[in-house]
Structures are given as C-alpha cells and as structure tokens.
## 1
Amino acid sequence: MATTDYSLERGLPSSVDAERSILGAILLDNFAFHQASSQNLQAEDFALDSHRRIYARMRDLGDQGRAVDLITLAEELSRNKEVEAVGGVAYLSSLTDGLPHRPNIEQYVRIVKDKSLLRGVIFASNSAIAKAMDEGDSATDVLSAAEAALYALSDQRVSQGFQNVATI
C-alpha cells in the first residue's frame, strides 16, 4: 500500500471571501442574517476565529430580536471583550468593502459549509491516523472510532439539509 504525506502547508479548506461576504451582507441587511440562519449556518462553520466570533455575536443579537449593524455588533463584541480579537471596529466596517451589489447569501453559506465539512473530514481522519500510529487501541476500535466520527459528520450534513456546492 502506497503512503502519501499530506501536508497542510496549503492550509485547511476555507473561503475567507465567502465568509466576509456573509458577514458584510448581514451588516448591511438583517434579512441576510435570516437567510444564513435558515440554512443552519453555525459559528463553527467559519474557518477564521475572528469570523466565528463575529457571527456568534450576530447570532446573539438576532436571538435577542435586536438589529445587527455595525454599532450594535461593536457594542456586543465590546461587552464580550472581543473587539480586539476580531481586528477592531475598523475590521468590522471593512467587511462591507467590495461586497457584491446583490450578494448571493445562500451560495456563500453553501461554500462556507462545504469547506467546514471538508475540515471536519480532515480532523476526523487525522484523529484516526494518530490513534492508529499510537497503537494504543485495537485496529477494530480505531476503525470504529473513525467510522463514528465520519458518520457524525454525515448525519450533521443530512440534518442540516446540506448540499455540496458541486451538486447545485
């Protein structure tokens, strides 16, 4: 069996542009938040920590029935002591720069969720590889854990009505 050295030098799968477009569109129009939420977009789907934090605060505002805009978001991030962690208010305001005139939120969410799923597969696979290399568990246990992790990803995809971008 041939071995392959998979290097993560390229970085993990992500689409920072799609992430920024989602966040920027929400800042400009709260309907975009409802579109993203209806597709079950989660903070964990974002690759960048700053984007995860921003979206989590947007969800907090939305869950409280409050408007999501630059001022309310900056205040919510400040209340949680996260303004600097996301790049400051200047970064927040830059999220709307270069945003398409009519952003296609549904497509951007599909892209972000697809990349998130790919990262999940990588994490599950790396965990299986580490357990196999450790030889601390039986091969059957390692295989069972790998199957369970991949099935959990598959179940998550199905329960969220996720479709791969390539099939759309």
## 2
Amino acid sequence: MQDFRQEINARASMDLEQRRTWYSPVADVYYDARPHYPHKLIDRSVALAQLDSDASILEVGCGPGNATVDFAQFGFSMTCIEPNQDFCHFVQHNCDRYPKVTICNTSFEEWELEAKQFNAVLSANAFHWIPPEIRYTKAAAAMCDNGFLILLWNLTPEPKYEVYQVLEEVYQAYAPSFVRYEGAQIQAEILRGFGQEILDSNCFKELVVEQTACEVTYSIDEYLKLLSTLRRLEPQAKELLFAGLRQKLEKFGDSVQLSFLSAVHVARKAPVRG
C-alpha cells in the first residue's frame, strides 16, 4: 500500500501543466476502457447525500464523464470542472442530452470559488489529484450548510493472482511501475485510508462508506487499453510491453477476468468553527 500512497502524493504534487495533459494520449479510450461505477453505489450516494431532483452538484475532475452521465440522469444541475481540454471535449459530447450540465475547462485550484452554492461536491477517482491542503477546505467552502462530499472509487482492476504471476516478468522487463499486485485486502486498506483522510480534514463529519467487490471480463484488446489509462508509458516501451502481455495472455484464452473494489464515501459538511 505504501507504493500506492506514494503514487497518490506524486500526482497531487504535479504542476498544473502536467496534470492538464496527463491523460491526453489516452483521452479517446478512457471513457470506454475504465469500468463503470456500480449503479447501486450511485443510487446509495444520492440517497445518503439527500439529493432531490433540483439539487446542484459541483464535480471535481469529471474526466470524459464516466460518473457525470450517471448523476446527470437524475436531473441534477451540475457544474463539472476538468483541466484536461481533451476530456472536456468528450464529456461535452457525452452529456449533450443533459442541458443542466455545465463543463468548465479549468483546475479546481484555479476555479473561482462559488461559496455555499452546491448541495454536494462529487469526485470520481479524481480527488487525489488535488493538493491535500486545498481539496477538502475548498470543497467544503463551495457547499451549502449541511452539504455533502461524495467520493466514488474504482480501484485497480486486476487479473487473478496466478495470471498476474505469469505477467510479472513482462512488467519487470518493460514497465517496472506496473509491478504491484493489490488484491482485495490491500484495496480495502486503501479505501479505509481515504475515509480516514476525510475525517482528519475536520471539514466533514458523519462519514458513511459503502463498498462492493466487482468482477468484469475484458477482451485482451480491451484490457490493454485499460492498462494504457492506468500508467503513462513511452511509445516504444508500451509496444514491447503490450506485445509481451498479449503473448502471455493468449495462453489463458481470448479474455481476461478482472476484479476490484468499488466504493463510495459520503460525508456531511461540518460546521465552521468560529
């Protein structure tokens, strides 16, 4: 888990220009490659945050709209912040049907605070990109009194451990940063850490955590596209890595079974101490 925490901290410490373009090479495949958030967690987050159809949501780091579309379907008014221009193009297209969704091509740090304007602040697999000294205090400041923070997470989809063991030598050769296997126990610890961080911020209270074990089946091509969204690779290393992985994976068949934990953290805004 320490490697994962170091990676999280490294992303939050990137300068804004790096973060604006980090996903640009895979912007066209990100929406379809990443697993969807379970509908039952979306529904539970809406219920826990006590959101009715005229609620307003600020989404931090909406990406191409992987969670945005799910929440827009409820009819909420949504202001979605995304620093990556390529992602903004895709989320605009994906939300064409939802006139109450507004996309802002900026970072959360640079976004001009609209204080106490939102019933909830939502972030799906993106809150860790914001520096810790900013993310909780600014999110709380944007919320109405008794507003809610909603953090959705899909942790890393992984093949069965025996499959990973076969793939590990390919990772070692061409992409050492991929050499990490979490499994359900470590992923549960990661989620507990995220929850504790929310409480430690002193900006939120009454934390509720719900999680579920997910399984998905990808074709080999789909799995390789997914990997391209999880780490950045130089083109030559990517070509060699994917060729080696394909060769190994084809021995198991034409598809890959993946498992991961999905979760939502919902917490109420704490009163401001005078």
